[in-house]
Design goal:
Radius of gyration: 22 Å
Largest sheet: none
Shape: elongated
Structural class: mainly alpha
Strand content: under 5%
Number of helices: 1
Distance between the termini: 69 Å
Order of helices and strands: H
Length: 56
């Protein structure tokens, strides 16, 4: 009975991990689709001077 309970717990953990993985993949796909469709026209802008620290 003890092994069965351990297996149930492990199965529940794996199901939860799979759900998290699928959700992350769906969000990533939706974000890419939004970027491709032009909904997010304001992308990240970086100034070359912001990349490096100023010398003393």
């Amino acid at each position: 009975m003890f092994h069965y309970r351990l297996q149930e717990l492990r199965r529940a953990e794996l199901v939860e991990q799979a759900e998290t993985y699928r959700l992350a993949r769906r969000l990533r796909t939706a974000r890419r689709a939004a970027n491709r469709s032009g909904e997010n026209r304001e992308g990240r802008v970086s100034d070359p001077s912001e990349r490096f620290a100023r010398a003393a």
